[in-house]
Amino acid sequence: MQEALLRAKPAVVLVIAEVSAEVTLDCGAGPTTVTPPVFRETGTGWFVDGRGWIITNGHVVQPAHTPPRWLVNQQAQRAVTTACLPKVLQRQGIIPGERPDVEDAVKRRLLDQVLPTTKVKLNPQVSVVISSGARFKAEVKKYSPPVSNEPGVMSGRDLALLLIPGAEFPVLPLADSKVGRIGDPIHILGFPGVVLSHELLNQSASVEASVTNGAVSGFKQDVTNQPVIQTDAPAAWGNSGGPAVDQKGAVLGVLTFVSLAPGPEGSIVQGFNFVIPSDAVREFVKDTEVKIEGKSKFTDAWFSGLREFFSEDWKAAARYFEAADKLVPNLPDVKRVLGETRENIKNPPPRPFPWFWVAVGVTLLSGAGYGGQFGLRWHRNRYRIQPSEVIRMLEAGKAPIVLDVRRTEVYDALPLKIPNSVRLAPEELASGVGGLELDTTRPVVAYCT
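Above: the chain's sequence. Below: its structure in token form.
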């Protein structure tokens, strides 16, 4: 699983939708232009084509791609509150925060007076940050709006296709979502907001994807009857648009929406998150320039390096990792694994005792010993027959000649005579049996001890 996640992580990117604004308003002393704080939302994306093509959610880029009316109103209100409210409070001798009820009433009257003549100019932009920290301006090449059940609001597949400049980025292959089964392991990669803003983490945490693990827990349909995959893998704000990968590191789907608890708080209910199937991604990009091959020069070098790394061929792995680092420099996972590989070349880790091969060798030797004993016993007894076979010869009329060749001391201790047998002591055999006349046409059976 570690190799699969290392394959996937470099191809995951941070998507930023920003909307800055220039607001022209009149607080009573003539028109003035104010720049309120930039509206910013973040999400996750991933390279579907190494030539700079990225998949994310439609709702991640929506504020910058099709700015909603509420965003215009929000920026206008922020500008009025920032530029006009402090002056009015000062004229009325009110210290900000001292009398919240009075301040709120003044703010409402001010908004009613100033907003009707306020003009807002929005400057939207979508950016992508790869895990090396490099930031690129992105174009939205195709867009499908988020799923919605509100009357009059267009509902779509919640996908967006972005393009950034470049030609040899990491890329993720697509799995076949139709073969997924309930219980299959699934891993969600992304940039949850709680990590991006965590006060105890350094800047590197904002550009390296986090991983959460779970399983496929259901196959459902959204309000527009489009298929979605349910998973219990944890997710948070900022994970939207991130890839959900299988045990091979291939994309099974795209995280789209989570479940919220009822009530005004609306906290995320973990265990009930939903993924757009990879087959929907294929359908979404089929009329574009995207090539769904899952290959690029970086990916070929990176995957080959990982294969050699986990086979403990450190020198070969280092060559591939160095090639990958040249193609897309300073990716954290590449730098970390390359450093570990170089350390293993310099100071090879101790190899564990090969108990498996020892066990195989002992088993083979034991088998050979038992086989040798069996062969020796077979060779010694290859002409031995049972008394029942002698009886069958007699019944068949073959009349075998029976030689009683028991040792003399055994014969004397138990002088049991076999009818029609020929007595021949072993000592006589040693001295020769030239005078023994036997019918060579009949079978000869020796009885011994």
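The chain has four domains: 2-285, 297-346, 353-379, 387-447.
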